[in-house]
Amino acid sequence: MKTQAENSKNRKKSVIENFADLTGEISNTFRFLAETGCRGFDCSKESIETVKKWGSSFFLPETLPEIRMSLDDCRRCKLSKGRKNIVFGEGDPHAKLVFIGEAPGYDEDQKGLPFVGAAGQLLTKIIQSMNLTRDKVYICNIIKCRPPGNRNPEPDEIETCMPFLSRQLLVIKPDFICTLGAIAAQSLLKTTTPVSRLKGRFHDYNGIKVMPTYHPAYLLRNPDKKRDVWDDMKKLMKEYKY
Ligand code: URA
Chain-centre distance of CA 40, in angstroms? Predict the structure, then answer.
C-alpha cells in the first residue's frame, strides 16, 4: 500500500511529465514553422482583419505545384548562377515513402529530374527490389540546384533551400522517409553524427519515421556496402504496409 506522500509524489511526476510533453510539442511546432519559412507572427488587429477579408481559403494547405511556383526562377542562393534546371522532385504527391538525396548531379541538372544518372539507376533497382516503383514513391533532394563540380552543398545553401523541402513534406505527409547519404540524413535530422551510426534504425522528423542509409553513388564505389543498404530497406519494408 502506497503512502499518501508516495501517491502525491507520483501525481506530481505525471504533471511534470505532461508539462515536458507539452513544451516538447510546442518547441517542435515552432521549429517546424521556422523550417517552413515562418519568420514570426503579425497578430495586430489590422493584420487579422485584413486576412479575415480574404476568406478561409487563406488557411487551405498548399499543393506541390504551388510550392514549385513559389520557387519561380529561384535566385535565393549562389547555386542559381551555374544551374541549368531546378530539380524540384518527382513521384506520387501522396507517397507513403519519400527518398531524399543530397543534390542534383550533372544528369539531373540537365533533365530537371532527380536521380536519373548512374546513382539514380541503382536507386531505381533498390526501389524495385522493395516491390515498389518510382512513381509510387516520391524522390527529391535536400537542395534543388547542382553545386559546381558536384561539390558538397554548403550550409547556407542547405539553409536557404530546406524550407521548400519542409513544405513539400508537409503536403506529401509520408509515413516514411529514406535519406540517402550523410548530407541528407544530417541536414534533415539536424545532427553531425556520421551516417554509419545513424543508418539502420528509425529516427523522427516531425512524426515521420526516417531511415537513413548510404547514398547509391557511394554504393557504386563500394559495392560491398550494398548488403548493408538492403538490410536497412528490409527494416523499412517490415514497417511499410503494402
Ligand atoms: N545524387 C543525389 O544526391 N541526388 C540526385 O538527384 C542525383 C545524384
Answer: 22
**In angstroms, rounded to a whole number, what is the distance separating the alpha carbons of residues 99 and 125?**
13
pTM: 0.79
Q: Which of 92, 97, 93, 141 is nearest to 119 (CA)?
A: 141
Ligand 1 centroid distance, CA of 125 (Å):
15
Residue 230 predicted with pLDDT over 70: yes
> Is the CB of residue 141 below 6 angstroms from any atom belonging to ligand 1?
yes
CA 143 to ligand 1 center in whole angstroms: 10
CATH number for the domain harbouring residue 177: 3.40.470.10
Write out pLDDT tens, residues 150-161: 999 999 999 999
**Residue 101 beta carbon below 6 angstroms from any ligand 1 atom:** yes
Cell 541503382 belongs to 122
Q: Mean pLDDT over residues 5-27, rounded?
A: 64
* Pocket residue to mutate for ligand 1, from 85, 141, 187, 220, most atoms within 8 A of Cβ: 141
Q: Which domain holds residue 92?
A: 4-239
Task: For residue 208, list its beta bridge partners.
Answer: 205
**What pLDDT score was predicted for residue 96?**
98
Return d(Cα 130, Cα 137) in angstroms, integer.
11
Residues 119, 107: contact at Cβ < 8 Å? Answer: no
